[in-house]
Amino acid sequence: MKFVISSSELLRGILAVSKAIPAKSALPILENFLFVLKGETLEITASDTELTLKTEVEVESTAEEGKIAVPANHLTNLLKELPDQPLTIKTLNDTSFECSWATGTSTLPYFPAVDYPDILSTGSDAISIDFPAQSLAEGISGTIYATADDEIRPVMNGILFDIDTEYTTLVATDSHKLICYTTKDVKSPEKASFILHKRPAGVLRSILGKNTETVQVTFDSKAVIFKFDSTTMVCLLVVGKYPKYRDVIPQNNSNILRIDRVQLLNTVRRVSVCANKASNHIKFDLKNGSIEVSAQDLGFSIAAYEKISCQYDGEELTIGFKSSFLIEILNNMTCNSLVIKFADSRHAALIVPAEDEAESEKICGIIMPIMIA
């Protein structure tokens, strides 16, 4: 193998896939990037066997094609210290390769490409859809924080992509809170679904470019492939049956609170400082035209309350929540005003942006109440 490439372009390429390099692996070969040079294109691959990232970088010239696995950490650190300039990479023998730039040279070891594990792929029965990149990024950002860390129920650790003939819904829940993001921009001729673990979901969100328009999503029962620009991401899916989330979405909550999101968020943050550190419980007292948020920790004889004006239509109601869950939901919504719908003190509250209420509730949150004294 021998080629010339811009050092900054090579660095951009390896950083685009480096999130798939495992911190520690039982397979030392996975601590390397796989370089595959064909013509004027260098394909760079990184994988931990469950998550694989590939990207393509154009080279300036190719003298000899080839495949090698190069040490990720050493190469990345070297390129970070180099100013942008032409870099010549060539194999010297069966075990080492050379990086040469205008004023110096570095010799590094490499490993045979045949030692690199086979990359995941989808089968002939795979389903393919086009997903607008902005909707995909919004959907992941709006739901990923609601995923769980549950060893017994691994399906709760991922985001459900529920694809219908008219719309697609991304869902995440940890059983205390549930978040749904719905977009009509994505649909399929037939109903389908898959569960994407939160780690690859977070990686995908971080590598989606601002100028990316569409992501091609191809999936079967075991794996999913995301393709956009010059990048390909392949990952194992979470296997299992996701809870019937639609059954827990309240439909007839008749007590309606309309309030500024940031105002409520800041109030809950202030009051929760005095909540019991173990339970994080806060209390809402809802009356016509006002809401009082309070918390106390009897063990330390501390308490706080704050009363704010709002639009509330319904019966007087006292309900408790875990403040950390409520803060997460309020903090991750981007709307100005919220509508929170209550049934009573024992059933889940539905939170939707006021701007989308008349629409199809593009994003909605559900939070379970807690018993209060």
TrEMBL record:
Q: InterPro entries, per this entry?
A: DNA_clamp_sf, DNA_polIII_beta, DNA_polIII_beta_C, DNA_polIII_beta_cen, DNA_polIII_beta_N
One Pfam family from the UniProt entry? DNA_pol3_beta_3
| Gene3D superfamilies cross-referenced by the UniProt entry | 3.70.10.10, DNA Polymerase III, subunit A, domain 2
Principal place of residence = cytoplasm
Q: Which CDD domains match?
A: beta_clamp
- Tell me where it resides: Cytoplasm
Q: Which UniProt keywords apply?
A: Cytoplasm, DNA replication, DNA-binding, DNA-directed DNA polymerase, Nucleotidyltransferase, Transferase
A Gene Ontology biological process in which this protein takes part is: DNA strand elongation involved in DNA replication
Highest taxon listed in the record's lineage: Bacteria
Q: Which residues form the DNA polymerase III beta sliding clamp C-terminal domain?
A: 247-359
Q: Which part of the chain is the DNA polymerase III beta sliding clamp central domain? A: 132-244
Which NCBIfam families would you find in this protein's record? dnan
Please describe the quaternary structure of this protein: Forms a ring-shaped head-to-tail homodimer around DNA.
Purpose of the protein? Confers DNA tethering and processivity to DNA polymerases and other proteins. Acts as a clamp, forming a ring around DNA (a reaction catalyzed by the clamp-loading complex) which diffuses in an ATP-independent manner freely and bidirectionally along dsDNA. Initially characterized for its ability to contact the catalytic subunit of DNA polymerase III (Pol III), a complex, multichain enzyme responsible for most of the replicative synthesis in bacteria; Pol III exhibits 3'-5' exonuclease proofreading activity.
Name of the featured protein = Beta sliding clamp
Q: Which gene encodes it?
A: dnaN
